[in-house]
Amino acid sequence: MTTISQTVPGTAEKSAIRKICLRLVPFVALMFFINFLDRTAISFAGPNGMISDLGIQVAQFGLASGIFFVGYILLEVPSNLALHRYGARRWLARIMVSWGIVSLLFTWVSSVQGLYGLRLLLGVAEAGFFPGAIFFLSAWVPARYRSKILALFYLAQPLTVVFGAPLAAWFINQHGLFGLEGWRVMFLGVSIPAILVGIAAWFYLVDKPKDAKWLTTEERVWLETELEKEESSKKTPHGHHGLRAAFASGRVWMLCMIYFGFVYGLYALAFFLPTIIGGFQQQFGVTFSVLQKGLITGIPYLVAAVVMFFWSRDASRRGCKTWHIALPALVGGVSVPLALYMDSPAATIAVITITACSIFAALPNFWTLPTQFLSGASAAAAVALINTLGNVAGFSAGYVTGALHDATSSYTVPMMVVGGFMLLSALLMVLLRATQRPAKPVSSTLKDSHSAKAV
Fold first, then answer.
1. What are the Major facilitator superfamily (MFS) profile domain coordinates in residue numbering (predicted)?
2. What is the pLDDT of residues 385-410, one digit of tens each?
3. pLDDT in tens, 87-131
4. 260: closest CA among 418, 402, 413, 130?
């Protein structure tokens, strides 16, 4: 893990990072907000009319939720390599407009087979967005700022549920608008922004610091110099910039397995939390309106956003250490099955909140790891590969959770599986740190700005 010892930042350094935080990160985070909302919109539609209207079972709903990842997984690495070749501005804009159009088609889905097909096509359209955004933002700042930048970016994901759940509920309550059921109105309402923001991204984003007119000459020189130092530090006699470097790295494959556990927990929570809340009436004898369910769904994610921000800020100050990733995984693995043994809705949501905090506290710090020892095309490929294989969990979480629920008529076993995968991630993170070799200093210049131990 990288432990950072910083010198006092100069004026150009502070102003350059501040401008990136204000100009780039919020816009890419907005894209991520819309991305995650469109991807998980099915979780709001399911218990609010779609399941009954289309006549589907919980296992079929789980399959529809997870089949998204089939196309997503197949095209993830090629998409990120295309982004590296053609530039983030064009590629991210193209991805966003594509998925917005596909998401819009859910408004008129009429069968479970059509639902499967559109979810598969949505995965194809979205492939490469998330790792592309991670690679893009990582390429704009030196390593010592990546925890901060990625944490600000990642805030969009929990906030998608905080604001997206009530927004989705509001759309669902517009039942009858344009002659559509409420859940169809919801798909219409959350899809149009993707198309509009995707078009805006083509004109707003900038691929590299040298092309950013909003940076001063001093800021550009400092930024390009720092980034070039880091790129040089990653080079070996055999090169560390090829596609082969990513696929041949044992560390990359270990990171894939660690990420699997986080994503499994993330999507099990995202896809089934609204359904679990919907079951409070039968379990505890309490009834909530659609809007109330949306607000309750947002509670764990609002707290998680706050915890993630401060946890990542601590990682940025201390240097990202093993426990910044392993400890949240451990807490999440223990807490997630406990939620099902609580005796009230409030206690259940409180424990689920701990789980959400754990997942989101770990994720931004996790994504600082691949670019610590890879760069260029190899870094783009590594980020995409980790996200690809990790997102096998996205398919597994939806399908396995639904199938186990149907088999046992309970969420107890499915949530035990979620906890097990998160505990495995914690263990693998500790093993990765224990088996790594300390990095050798690569240059006195780099040592002056920060000392690093590559994962």
1. 24-437
2. 888 877 788 778 877 888 888 888 88
3. 889 999 999 999 999 999 999 999 999 999 999 999 999 988 988
4. 418
CB contact set of 138 (below 8 Å; sequence gap of 6+): 146, 149, 150, 367, 368, 371, 379, 383
Burial of 423 (0-12, 13-18, 19+ CB in 10 A): middle
Instruction: Decide: 350 and 429 in contact? Cβ < 8 Å.
Output: no
To the nearest 10 degrees (0 to 180), the angle between helices 250-278 and 392-408 is 40
- Single-letter code of the amino acid located at 447: K
Q: Does domain 11-449 have CATH number 1.20.1250.20?
A: yes
Give how far Cα 268 sits from Cα of 219, 272, 290, 336, 441, Å: 43, 6, 21, 10, 42
Short-list 307, 302, 300, 301, CA closest to 346: 300
The pTM of this model reads 0.74
Instruction: Report the chain's C-alpha Rg in angstroms.
Output: 22
Evaluate whether 384 touches 371 at the Cβ level (below 8 Å).
no
Residues 76, 79, 85, CA angle at the centre, nearest 5°? 145
DSSP tag of 215: S
- Tokens 């295309």: give the residue: 82
| Rounded distance between C-alpha atoms, residue 385 and residue 243, angstroms | 11
